Amino acid sequence: MAQTNPGFELRHLRYFVTLVEERNFERAAVRLGIAQPGLSQQIRSLEKIVGTLLLDRSRRGVQLTHSGETLFQEARKVLAQTEATVAAMNRSARGESGRISIGYVASAAYSGAVVGSIRDFKRDYPYVEVELQEMELRQQLQRIADGLLDFGYIRAPAPIPPGVSVQIVLREPLVAMVPAEHEFADGPIDTLARLARDTFITPRQPPEIGFHRNTLQACREAGFEPSVRAIAHDFTEIAALVGIGTGIALVPQSMSRVELPDIHYRPLRDVTATSDVAIAYRKGEGSPATKAFIVQHRKKISRPASGEIVKAPVPGEPSDTTLSALRRSPLVGSELDLSRLHEEGRKVDL
Hints:
With 350 residues, the chain is α/β, with parallel strands linked by helices. The protein has helices at residues 10-22, 25-32, 36-50, 66-93, 106-110, 113-124, 137-145, 210-221, 235-243, 288-302, 320-328, 339-343; strands at residues 97-104, 127-134, 151-156, 164-179, 199-203, 227-232, 249-252, 263-267, 274-282, 335-336.
């Protein structure tokens, strides 16, 4: 009935519900901030719109007819739903609701960067739905560029498509993953050059990408060209291949948290090459929820390292002092515009 009459408005419902709740025209008018005669006129207009009397004027005070009681119950539901809709719209505009699709490489999850960041974000934005997808880094970057993925956690370096921004959030030292029977399984490796005769296993990546690039860089810094077999699909497969003696691998220090049979992780004293966790997203992102997620990462990156509690390092994990130094690195958190370099066909190491 109300939907067919163009004169019917939400304010009529609000005036009527307030009047019924107050049971008095004067008090209701004060609560609504209008004059009492104006309220009386609005109620009569509402009765004319719905085509029936809502108040029993033969009795003292505000008494409802049967139609008035029905309208009161339904009007409260409409107003409550309207308020909920407006609140949802405001949450969406502030980035407090919506949906974010996030890609990640498994090795980034081992570093703690993925779980910790999403946990903190969900605490502050509980109405935002987060969809996680494990995905190879090049696929992530392309899907972000194509608008099919909102955000990604990757392992640099990688060629960055135009329109995608990248920020490094963590630099991790490299360690050697060796089988149990390896000569350095239980002893220190004073220089990476001692592993020059080994075969290095990497994921199936081109030489300029991710761990393949990290391995080449570290070995070349140590003065030798490594024998590399890019045959693994992921870290689980790398670990299995190392465990059966197919070769060794250079992996991020956080990988040493994964304890597997017949696998040993050995620190490397003279390696300066690092494995970098980076976040990727579209430039000029329009989604408020994704914008809020990006802002959260920027705040974490720019947070001063001073005043941090220094504690004894846990075996297999980077120490707080190491992480503090990494956070203070001028490249950590720097936003890189790589689209022009990529268009020119130049290789870019993040």
